[in-house]
Amino acid sequence: MLFVVDFDETITAHDTISCIAEAANKPDLWSFLAKAYWDEYLSWRSGLPKLTTLSSYLDLLRKGGFAEAASIQRIQKHKFFEGLTPEQLEGVASSITLRDGFDKFLQLLMPRLRDGTDEFHILSINWSSRVIEATLRRIPDIDTGLITIHSNDLEMDPTNQLTTGKIVPFHAESLILTADDKAREFQTLVRSSPYNATVYIGDSSTDFGCFSHASISILFLATEKILFTLESFSDVRLLKLDASYDLSNTKERPQFNPSPLYQSQSLKAQSLSQTKIYTCDQWHIITAVFRR
């Protein structure tokens, strides 16, 4: 089975991009950069129409990616992340709190990762793969060499081992900034996978595209706003995950639907083209349903 999991606020208890920004120790510049991003994003968001399907929502998110791209360009232009050492980045991990129970889930998978029964990937819009790996190394009995991270990274100058201020892809075709970028990387993983079933676990709208392409989709500890958004879509069916379920033997390969699927709310209950998404708020439940 192929497991692909989001990092920030799915594996971690809080957003960690702000922790990386704090390591740069440029609070005034960060305030300017953050305000510029939110001004652009909220201006775009305020004019959005009400949507009734996940597929139409993903189309809209795709068009809104300009705010993330512009933000990254500003960060690089101002060299916000220039001059950080590997030790500083790895030190960020000490301030990161893992979600309760995630360590037990990863420990459960370790023997299966070693014998090739399963694979485990992290797919994230995070800016530092080094921070992600250092965070995972804190878990006892974990071999990070068996985990593949797909994210962004802070480029390191090999001559002085300091960050250059540039953000680059890490195990990805290009920068991962949006739901569309994550879906692209996820589909690449799934299509090259020898496994019959793919599990995707995430918490936010940047994970919606991956949910539409996974054979098992799990929305983890979502906010009320995210739940309300998904519940309003006629092509989505939400199911609460129960520890008594056994999802470890799913044989279905994910389905790829190349064109949007539009339908009325009245057809929601009988739709054959719905994206089924399990909701869950505890890692120990996820551990239970995949225990073999």
UniProtKB/TrEMBL annotation:
<protein>
    <submittedName>
        <fullName>Fungal protein</fullName>
    </submittedName>
</protein>
<dbReference type="Pfam" id="PF12710">
    <property type="entry name" value="HAD"/>
</dbReference>
<dbReference type="InterPro" id="IPR023214">
    <property type="entry name" value="HAD_sf"/>
</dbReference>
<dbReference type="InterPro" id="IPR036412">
    <property type="entry name" value="HAD-like_sf"/>
</dbReference>
<dbReference type="InterPro" id="IPR050849">
    <property type="entry name" value="HAD-like_hydrolase_phosphatase"/>
</dbReference>
